[in-house]
Amino acid sequence: MNAASLGQRQLFGIKKDNLLKRISTYFEETNNAGEVVEYFVAVLVRHALSVGDYSINELSDLIRSIFLTSEPTDTLRQHCVYFQDYFPDEKDWKTVIQRLFASEAAFRDYTREASAYKALLDEKNREVPVLSDYQFNLVSVFKDVTGKRHTWALQNIKKVQSTEQTRGILKILTTLTIFKTAGVRRFAEYVRYKSVKGRVDAEDVEPVVTIKEEQTPAAKTPEKPKRSAARKQAVAASTGKNNAALLYEEDVEQTSTALPDEASLDTASISAAPPSSSKTRGASEKAPSSTKYVPESLQKPDTSYMKIGKTKEQIQEAREERKRQRKIKKALNKRKRR
């Protein structure tokens, strides 16, 4: 079974532990030193630009083994300088140079471009990521070998401190041959890039499941509809009495010695006052009652029975009885004056 090679999505997308494990497994199954070395170079670019840690120190033994034992190739010669720091023993590094190059001068000439790129990586690795409420994403444009442009994005990068520095690091990808689509090599030529700042305003986390006991809601006593203040005033105005008078009306109707209403008090005050002249007396006798008759069809609906607990018919009968009592009193007062 052929081992699956790692592409752009794996090298720049998956987590560090899984990525390093897959690179190591791929070399064990294929023993393709040149391809694995280019995998390492791509991860070095990702580590330098990203906020997260993608160092390959865990595979230092594999790196040393490849350069000390694998067959020398142009790929190893081109990229060996990136891995000089993984050889703490100076003798081992000299052995690598002797295996790959005919002389020290050949080594310097062959790795001049890679040495400049390595200096940019080292400088970027020394940067401390600036704390920010925003996440920075890198969006770059490259051309493939046919001249067709394509976009490559890297998320959560360090804030760009130097445009030239970032441009140089991105150009390292143009020296790699591992990125291909339908046999066409990508990242053949660098075009441009931009750093996009965006606030992290949403994050999906695994919800915590909590079990709640279902409780049967207690039966609520239906509340009586409350009348607004405006409605109460309207009712009082339609009956000619205030709220206190409406509440007191029931007691007035049930007592044998009923208190006189406003119309009776007005009549009594007129009869008690000494008449100044016959004209005045006649005018007072002919004075219309303060309560005018209004046809029932024009009367507003009476809702007082809803407030004092009596039926509408009972209230109407009580009113008729009071009117009859007032007429009797009025007639008696006229007889007394005669």
Automatic annotation (TrEMBL):
Chain spans, region Disordered: 213-237, 253-338
Start-end of Basic residues biased regions:
324-338
Q: Where is the composition biased (Basic and acidic residues)?
A: 213-226, 310-323
Low complexity: compositionally biased ranges: 268-278
Name the chain's protein: Uncharacterized protein
- This chain's source organism reads Enterococcus gilvus ATCC BAA-350
